[in-house]
Structure formats: C-alpha cells, structure tokens
Design goal:
The structure holds two protein chains of two kinds. By secondary structure, chain A is α/β, with parallel strands linked by helices. Chain A has six helices and six strands. The chains are: A alpha/beta, B alpha/beta.
Chain lengths: ~160, ~190
C-alpha cells in the first residue's frame, strides 16, 4: 500500500501542479492530502473537472483530475471533443470500482468494460501498483509530454491508503 | 408576437462587437457554435480560444484558466444553452470565487446554431441562478450603453462577475472556425509566454 502523502509528493515531483476532481472512496486519502495542502479544487461533475484542467493547462499548469470510473462516462464528450482534438493533455487518476466483479451492482458494467472503453477512444492507461509506482509515474510524465493527450492511471482498492475504515 | 424587450434588443454580433472593442490583453474563451464563428469574424486575436465542441465546458475552462493565471482577467463568452447544460459550474465558480473571471452570457433563449429550438432560459432567470450561486457582481442588460457600462465595470472589479445580455435570435453570416484545434491550443498558450 502506498502512503497518500508519498503519492501526492511523487505526483508533484513529475510536475503536476493543478488538481481537481470528484471524490471516490478509493481516492479519499489522496484528496484529503491534497485538500490539506490547499492543492485541490473540487468540481461538481467529472466533465467540469476535465474542462477546468484544460483551462489550467492552457494557463501553463500540469493538471490532474481525480474521479471514480463511473465519471469517465460523464467526461467522455469533453475528453473526445476538447482534449483529444485540441491536444490538451491531462492526467486522469481513475479509481477502478467493479474490478473483477467484486463491487456494488452499479459499478459492474463500467468495472468490466473500462479498459476497453479507454482503448476504444485511444486514451493510454496503466494500472498503478506499489511495486511499479516509480515506473508508472515516469510513463505518465513521458506520455503527457510526448503525446499531449489525456492518459489514465487506474487505482484499484487498497493501492493508496484511504481515510475510510 | 413581439415581446416587450424585443424592440431594443441587440443581435449577438452587435453586443459581442461592443465587448470586443473594450477587450485589451484579457484572454477570452468563446463557446461552441456561432458565438465562436462570430467572434472570429468580428475580431480574431491570438488570445481568443474558440471552442468547436464540448458544449457546456466553456465556463469550466474559464475557471481553470482564471485559477492558473491570477494576474490576468479571464473573459468567457457563453450562451444560455451552454450554461443550462452545466449549471453546476455556476455553483463551482460561485464557491471557488475567482476574482479575475468575467462570465458573459449571450442569452437568446434558443439553441441558435441548431435551428432555434427554445431553451429554458425564457422561464429560468440565469442571472438569478448566478446570484444565488455566489457570483459577486451580477447584471442583466439588453441595451448597448448598459452592456458597455457594465462590462467596463466588471473588467475593473473583483469578481467573479456574471453579465447576462438578453439578445435577439439573429445570427451573423460567419464561416466556421478556420484554425485547426491543436494549432489554436499552441497559439493561445503562447500568449502567456513572456
């Protein structure tokens, strides 16, 4: 398990300096750390968060958006008709609810199809793990700078320490 | 039937032209559809960011830009259909309260780009929603001298500000946005390099 303070520091180390999003339980620890450091601007919808991140990128920031994978559905049009065509990159930190079918019913379809969905719209993705976190973040930085499109880091339950019991 | 406001209403191009004359170095985000096409025709500049899709995202982009460029006053040209699609963003802006954001909404009460289907803004006062959401300055105008007066005032004041301009449905004959999207990102972003 990765400590949320360490993870946020690692994100800052690769240059990320603008954080927004919509909460999920899996992301609770990261959001708590970001909020405490006054680095996080809460959004009310995931498409709004992606739009804010796009504006921040235009203004010179390196943005990240935190969301539950159900929020990918909400964000799809902005990702396609803004980020992908305007070459506006963004680091998507997406919690993988419904992984291997072990979750509440509302998460099962997206949990099963998320990686196919990302492949279809050509958003590169990786699943974060404690063993490969350094390499995962190196890949994140390289993909962001070279391709200038959104990319997704997928976070399974238990990967980063959370605030929930 | 002619409504009581109709006699003195401006077209969007007339109202937009008046605002564009007052803009100096402010970065400007313009919503998708005819508003971007009209702005391109009236006064193209590197600091104009024309949206060609992602309806509803305009104010969110403006907010992110305002937070990342606190020394600049960011102007957003929005439409009633766009605002209604992401009305939650009014809450986010009202709560975050960026002092350097001027949110202009050209309200013609229709989806003009797709054939004048009515929007709900005839029944829902967007200025009232903005006020309730926490925008600091909120004005509703329709005549040219009021548009100019309030916009000048908002450019010089601490916001966030919301200028609702009631306009008629007339659309300017304007070509599609000519700049390729990735080039627009490059051009717009470069205006912040010093």
């Amino acid at each position: 398990m990765i400590d949320s303070d360490d993870f946020v520091r690692a994100l800052q180390d690769i240059g990320i300096d603008f954080f927004t999003g919509v909460p999920d339980t899996i992301l609770g620890g990261i959001i708590a750390t970001l909020t405490e450091a006054r680095l996080y601007v809460p959004a009310v919808r995931e498409d709004e968060a992606v739009a804010m991140a796009a504006g921040a990128y235009l203004g010179g920031k390196i943005p990240a958006v935190l969301m539950q994978n159900s929020g990918l559905g909400n964000a799809l049009n902005v990702l396609e008709s803004l980020n992908l065509i305007y070459r506006i990159p963004c680091v998507l930190l997406v919690s993988w609810r419904g992984f291997e079918g072990k979750d509440a019913p509302e998460h099962l379809v997206m949990g099963h199809t998320m990686t196919q969905l990302l492949d279809t719209i050509k958003i590169p993705h990786r699943t974060l793990s404690a063993e490969t976190v350094v390499d995962d973040l190196k890949w994140t930085a390289t993909t962001f700078m070279e391709q200038r499109i959104p990319l997704a880091l997928l976070l399974k339950k238990g990967i980063v320490k959370t605030v929930q019991p | 039937m002619i409504g009581p406001e109709e006699g003195v209403m401006q077209s969007r191009a007339q109202a937009m032209g008046a605002l564009l004359e007052l803009i100096t170095d402010q970065p400007l985000i313009i919503c998708n559809g005819f508003p971007s096409r009209e702005a391109q025709k009236l006064r193209d500049r590197d600091a104009n960011f024309y949206m060609i899709g992602s309806m509803g995202a305009t104010a969110g982009i403006g907010l992110g830009l305002a937070l990342s460029q606190p020394e600049k006053t960011v102007v957003v040209f929005d439409g009633d259909g766009n605002v209604l699609m992401s009305m939650g963003t009014l809450a986010t802006i009202g709560a975050v309260k960026p002092k350097n954001l001027v949110h202009v909404v050209f309200d013609n009460e229709v989806y003009g780009t797709t054939g004048n289907q009515p929007t709900y803004s005839r029944l829902v006062n967007l200025d009232t929603v903005a006020k309730a959401s926490g925008y600091v300055n909120v004005e509703r105008v329709r005549e040219r001298e009021d548009i100019v007066y309030e916009f000048k005032d908002m450019l010089a004041s601490e916001g966030p500000s919301f200028l609702l301009i009631k306009i008629n449905e007339q659309i300017e004959d304007a070509d599609r946005v000519a700049i390729e999207p990735a080039e627009m990102t490059r051009r717009f972003k470069a205006t912040f390099d010093t």
